[in-house]
Each structure stands twice: as C-alpha cells, then as structure tokens.
Amino acid sequence: MVNQLLDEEIISEATKIVNEGEKRGVILRILGALAIRMHSNGFESLHKKLGRLGEDTQGSFTDIDLIGYSSQRAGIRELMEKDFSFTISRQFLLLYGKERLVYYHPDNLYHVDIFFDKLSFSHVIQFGKKGNGRLELDSPTITPSDLLLEKLQIHQINEKDIKDIIVLLRGHDLGEDEEDRINLRYISSILGDDWGFWMDASENLRKTMKYAEKYFEQSLISQEDLNDLNNKCLKILDCLERCPKTKNWEKRAKKGVKEKYWRDVEELYR
Asked: What's the predicted TM-score (pTM) here?
C-alpha cells in the first residue's frame, strides 16, 4: 500500500472519523505518532526535521490507529462499514474481532486499526469503560499522559519511537493533572504498581536522553530542545524513583530481571 496522502490530509481523515463518531455517540480517539503530531502544537517541524518516518516523501503517515470502548463495538462497526464504507477481512474479524478491528479505505489509501479498552503490547495500558474512562479526558486524541505511556511501554524501543517521545515531551509541560500536560501523578500510579513497566519506562527515558544528545550533535535539535528534554526526562525519572510502590510492584521487583518482565509483541501490533 502506497501512501497517497499528505500529513495534513491523513490528520483530517482521522479527525473526521472521530468527529462523525462523536455525532453518533461513539467514542473513538487517535493513538500513536499521528496523535503526537496533532497534540504537540508548534513542534510539527521538529517531528519532520527528525525524519520520524523518513521525510523523503510528502506524507509520513500511512495508517490511522484508534481506540474505543468494547461496549460500543457494534456502533463502531456501523460507523466504519456503513457510514465510511471501509472494508474488513472476514477472517481477521473471526480471529481477532473481539480485541481489535482493521479496516481498509475504500480507495486503499490507508488502513485503520481500532483497539478496544486497552493497549496490550510489551505492557498493558488500560482505558477503563465508557462513562468514566480515560478516552473522555481528551479529543480527538488520547491524553498526552497516555501517549507517553504508549511509547514508554515498548520493551525493544526503536528510534522512531524515541523521536515521538522527544516531540511529545517538547510539546508539553509536566504537571499533576490532565490539562494539556503530562500528568506525573497518573503515570506514577500506573508504573508504581507494575515493576516491569516501570523498568522499561525508566530505561526508555534514559535512552531518550542519549538520543537527544546525538541529535543535538547532528544539529537536528537545538540547545534549548536538549536542555528541555533532559530536564523533563530527569524529572520524570526522579518522580518514578520516589513514587509510592504497591505490593504488586515490590513482589515483582524481588524477582528482578532473572524472569521475563515484558510481553513479546509482533511488529504488526506496533
């Protein structure tokens, strides 16, 4: 599949799906790199300068990742199949339809992944249920806090995900609420209950600082960018070190790295 859309066009497509769903009472939110580009106002050029997905083409995004509530699966299917005329593999629907849907644009311009209730990758990120879940906290994307967790949970993180973290951190202040900030209180509550997730998140923040130094030496980011990223990464790391740990965290910490503390994830699910 060859991407024929500019970044602005695929952002418009994703936003249209979310907005049409909203009109019908169906909650969908945008995930991943596309959401980070949309939510990090003023830092779109940094995302492009870093060559996040290879900026030798006009468009860098080839698909749309969404998340909704499983209680609205029927409404989501009606929205995608009847209102937008997207197609779905019947075999995939039979095998994976309870946990995930994959739709293809009528003109094959891109595909849409839709997850339900949680993201289960190297670690699990829960979004709750309709009415009091986290999807209602922001729109058209998930919150900056959840976007950061989505990237920090990757056990074998690659450079494109590091670039996403850099842009996300540059585009948001740290705080203790969801008002367009990265909520340290919420992140601490999640990672303070999951030692394995805490380990990978901490390691990925340290890797982000190393890559930021490399990008600064390559003149891809400025001194201001580097200082801001280092300050934020160190602050988050300090917060994770000092945050209260649950019995679940302490019990798993005693086993240490001798036992596997992450799930293997096929590239398809990235």
From this structure: 0.95
Residue at 104 is within a domain: yes
Number of residues written out for the chain: 270
Question: How many domains are contained in the chain?
Answer: 1
Q: What would the pLDDT profile of 61-108 be if each residue is shown by its tens digit?
A: 889 999 999 999 999 999 999 999 999 988 888 888 888 999 999 999
Residue at token pair 């993201």: 119
Give the span between the Cα atoms of 62 and 80, in whole angstroms: 18
Q: Is residue 2 part of a domain?
A: no
Q: How far is Cα 246 from Cα 157, in angstroms, rounded to an integer?
A: 26
- The stretches of the chain forming alpha helices (DSSP H) are 7-23, 32-39, 44-49, 73-78, 90-96, 144-152, 159-170, 184-191, 195-217, 223-242, 247-255
Structure tokens at 66: 């969404």
- Coil, strand or helix: which one is 68? strand
Ranges of the chain with pLDDT below 70: 1-4, 53-59, 266-270
Residue among 93, 70, 69, 91 nearest 81 (CA): 93
CB-facing half-sphere around the CA of 149: CA atoms within 13 A: 30
Q: Does some domain include residue 77?
A: yes
The tens digit of pLDDT for each residue in 249-262 reads: 999 999 999 999 99
Crossing angle of helices 195-217/184-191, nearest 10°?
A: 130
Nearest Cα to Cα of residue 144 among 82, 113, 186, 102: 186
| Helix axis angle, 184-191 to 144-152, nearest 10° | 40
Q: How far is CA 45 from the centre of its chain?
A: 19
Quote the domain boundaries for residue 61.
7-269
244: number of Cβ within 10 Å? 9
Cα(85)–Cα(106) distance, rounded to whole angstroms?
Answer: 6
